# Entry
Amino acid sequence: MKLKHSLLLTASTLFIFLSANSHAGREGVNAYYGLGIAAVSMSDADLAPTGELVLGIEEDGWALEGIAFGSTEVATDDPATDRSISGNEIGLAFRSIEKNEHYYKFKFSKTDLDIDNKDAVSTITTKTQGNSYTVGMGFRMDRESRLEVEYTLHNNDDISDPVHFLTLKYLWGGAPYHGTAF
# Structure
């Protein structure tokens, strides 16, 4: 068997296994939306507060999730320069089976980042694309609402240091919970 056939067989087996252990409980296709707030750590800047808008479509634990985000300006190591970050990401997320009103989340995303370095004279924008890797945990708040806590690492060759996101999201919609009543 050729390498690409072995990889295809391995990937297919993994996806079938994950789908058999998914969180949504065969609910069909559902849409969700939400708001988030994050703390972003860039190489030489203080933590930047960031707002997020989330839209997603999910089925059987798998979700296609789009996020737009933007931060306020924060001070860097150079007192004359401020930095801010904005961008968007689209990714494939997997939520585990919901047990005891919580679940785990894993996501791989393609991300576009715009990092603005602003001093007294000019603003220099660094535009970069790369991959983001997310792990998180979600909590059922109501029948059709959830709270998620996530850590995301964005890393690529265009920027010297990775960008770290620690996010708190509140989501509405999606697969309703059919466990114990709230």
User: Anything to note?
Assistant: The chain has a mean pLDDT of 81.
